[in-house]
Design a protein that fits this description.
Blueprint: H1 2-24, H2 29-43, H3 45-52, H4 55-75, H5 85-110, H6 116-126, H7 135-138, H8 145-173, H9 181-216, H10 222-242, H11 247-261, H12 268-296, H13 303-313, H14 315-324, H15 332-340, H16 346-358, H17 361-396
Length: 403
């Protein structure tokens, strides 16, 4: 796999040197990494599954998720909800649970042989959105700034909120290294979440207090603050795992606590390094996803999972989002557009890889298949559709939703 890593590094360097030019043609870093991953996967197909299904691979993926979740928790501008508290809460605590529940019911109808635990794992993989694959959409001026802000907030928080449920579902699905049965799964998941909250909260608050004191006295430099923000999520992850808690959930809580306890909100300059690290980690995950897409070809054609993935990307998101936003000041067009613009990306990839690593046999393959089909479907639907939706929105926008 050394050759594969070298090729991935070369592709990243190549993209970094011409990213601005490629952006004009809507060619993103994730798209290039997926293409490179597919090319490598075609030549190393037999090695992919063995490489992914290792303890080392699991820890690397968890650390990457920890950094991503920390960045998600800290980078939302204008406070926690950027002035869209009511709308964001509805999306995160009403629409998303409804979507997960609907995906669970649809999965039970399409795949009755799978357990509730496995179906819940698939739902947790397929539902959280991620704007990274279609980042140009966030800058598309044809879409009202309010709609873009709401989507950005949802993208920042939804995977962190889903993470504890994913851990419970994974244990329930058959991660027998941790628990057996529903009761054991719950008894494992609840303490793990509690330890994660405690560890993440303590590390975040202490880190913020130390940062406040250091900056007030002029002890720190801009560079040292940037470096510390890369270390804090790793400290939260390590502290939680030592307590038998969930490390990446702790990193998300750490980000929230750190932001709350800072005397001033972290600036873009302070977050620039950890943000760049998260982008680099995400690019690595997209390369692995490309390799995984080749591996999934060996699993055959499972139309039930494909139908479930397409439903999760469309009706199972659009309807709950639209209903949850009734009664807000958003227009019907706003509500519909927010539901339609829900790309899946790094969070789905990471959750899918963790499930594949933790589970065994057919159910491991099914979760990896669901992740791959969902993300590939999103690349097609949202990659092409985001431009079409923006054009459609431009024609149908109303004064109430104008910038």
């Amino acid at each position: 796999m050394t050759t594969s890593v070298l090729i991935a590094l070369v592709v990243i360097v190549g993209w970094s040197l011409v990213a601005g030019r490629l952006a004009r043609f809507r060619i993103s870093g994730p798209l290039l990494m997926v293409t490179a991953g597919i090319a490598i996967g075609l030549s190393t197909r037999n090695d992919i599954g063995q490489t992914l299904n290792t303890v080392a691979a699991e820890k690397v993926v968890e650390l990457i998720l920890a950094v991503l979740l920390f960045v998600d928790a800290t980078e939302v501008k204008g406070g926690y909800f950027a002035g869209e508290r009511r709308t964001s809460v509805r999306l995160l605590l009403v629409a998303m649970p409804l979507s997960i529940g609907a995906a669970l019911l649809a999965g039970a109808a399409l795949l009755p042989s799978l357990s509730i635990g496995v179906l819940l794992v698939i739902a947790c993989i397929a539902i959280p959105i991620d704007l990274a694959p279609t980042s140009s959409m966030v800058r598309d001026k044809r879409i009202p700034v309010r709609v873009r802000n709401v989507l950005n907030i949802e993208s920042g928080y939804n995977d962190g909120i889903v993470a504890p449920l994913f851990v419970f579902a994974l244990t329930l699905a058959g991660d027998h290294s941790h628990a057996e049965g529903r009761v054991d799964a719950l008894e494992t998941a609840v303490p793990s979440a509690v330890y994660a909250i405690v560890a993440g909260g303590v590390v975040g608050v202490v880190a913020a207090w130390l940062t406040n004191q250091s900056m007030a006295r002029g002890f720190a430099t801009e560079q040292s603050i940037r470096i510390s923000l890369v270390i804090f999520p790793l400290l939260a992850y390590g502290s939680a795992t030592e307590l038998q808690g969930n490390g990446f959930v702790a990193a998300f809580i750490c980000g929230i606590a750190y932001k709350a306890a800072r005397s001033t909100l972290p600036t873009e300059s302070e977050l620039s390094l950890v943000d760049d690290v998260s982008v680099l980690a995400a690019l690595a995950m997209w390369f692995v996803f490309g390799c995984t897409a080749v591996l999934v070809l060996e699993f055959g054609f499972v139309w039930q999972i494909i139908v479930l993935a397409v439903a999760a990307l469309t009706v199972l998101r659009i309807v709950p989002v639209y209903l949850s936003l009734l009664g807000t000041t958003l227009s019907r067009t706003d509500r519909l557009v927010i539901g339609m613009l829900g790309p899946r990306g790094t969070a789905s990839i990471v959750f899918g890889l963790l499930a594949y690593n933790a589970l065994e046999g057919r159910i491991a393959n099914d979760t990896l298949y669901a992740m791959t089909v969902t993300v590939l479907g999103s690349v097609v639907i949202h990659g092409i559709g985001s431009t079409l939706v923006a054009q459609w929105y431009e024609r149908r926008s109303t004064p109430s939703s104008a910038q």
